[in-house]
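Repro:
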Amino acid sequence: MAFDAALASAEKTAATPTKWRRFKVDLWATDLNTTEIGILQHTQHEAASDQFTKDMEIIGQIRDGKERSGIVAYRKELWKDGEGMKRRLVLKLFSEGMHWRGTMELLMGRSLQLSIGAKGVPVTAYSMNLARQDQLIQLERSAQKWPLFPEKFSFFIETSKGPRFYRLRRNVFAIGADYSLYNDRGRKIGSLDHRVINLGGSWMVKLDASESYAKLETVLQMFCTMLRFNGAARRHVRRELEQVHLGKSARALDKQERDLYLNPRRRR
């Protein structure tokens, strides 16, 4: 009897369809878009959020069904005109009303450290600062990368139930930059489907609804935005690593990056 009841319960669980949480990260091919037209609109964005600095360029949006729920931008001058270790990728996520929701930035010091440890394999490291959260989330590319092997990233999020660890793995048999999301038990809980027909880059994100929560969704939205610059960021780290080995590197980090490495327990 007990065995039959357990079997029936297992069959019922197996038959329960998975509920999915879906959203789209839609990046534009050019800087010309309906969200930011002209100096006046840019000034309005600056007034709405002090995180929207003068060098910010809007590059895409987050769509939740038919509604736009977010806007993504990056610090164009810092990435396009920066040099050496001070050239960094800084992405920012805003709500539809231009309220800041999060920042993702390339850490050149940490990236070079990991790349030296990996004997020259470019290992990019990012820090994420989310609105109203105490944790700085660290997302890093795996140093275990050989030709023809899939790219992997990992991160963890501190929750009320303790830390939750995640791994993003690029799909091997895919035309675009498709990734699968795994939890710390090795279970696939989501997918990032790259729509290559969109010249700017577009990802349809699908998450197991039982595993989804706001912080995880924000991390994935910013990760998809980063993928537009993924190859360029790796090449930048590789070039700087070569300059370090040759003794030609200007050994100076951006001040805002240096602040992220400061000892929180230091005497003030």
